[in-house]
User: Fold these one by one.
Assistant:
Number 1:
Amino acid sequence: MASLTLGVGGVNVSNNLGIWVGTSDEDLQLVARTGDVIGGKVLTNFPSLGNPFDVDENGVVWVGNFGPARAVVYSRVPGSSE
């Protein structure tokens, strides 16, 4: 999980947090980012940057805030065999 620099490339407080997966800086792939629409709801925040989530070679399980609601979300890793 990481936060992006505000003001760079259209990043603002509504879309500056995200989850990326990869084995190096060169192959990072975005899993989810605040401001994304998931299941018809806008992802507003992650409960905490230090909040653990589970990841393996096929996907990432994470918790997101969608306005006043929270949800556990499974995101398949791009290119996974599952």
Number 2:
Amino acid sequence: MKTSRYYKCFVVALLFALAFGFGCYPSKPTPDPLDGFHVAGKFDPDSNSNKAINEDSKNYIQTLSPKERDIAGREFFEDDNGRHAVKISYTLNDNNWEHVLIYDKNNHRIKAVKYVSGHSMS
């Protein structure tokens, strides 16, 4: 009879583990939009070749809400295929936000990604 009691406890524990252990998968991390890019060390935002990126990123910031426009900075990136990217960072409501603007070889924006990159303590 003791075996039956242990068996029931084992089955209950197994069902509990199945119901609660496998039901909470961690969320899949967001792919890094800057994967394959590196900091553009010699990027001059005011040069004629980069003027379109500089102006577009400034215009993009103006489309944000007034609270989002208090940016911590803009960083410029490039990849080995001639594409560029701009990362815009700011903190709002204890969240560190990043907007990444991706540009093709002709400096036309092809993608904009917005995400929370972390949290800060006030």
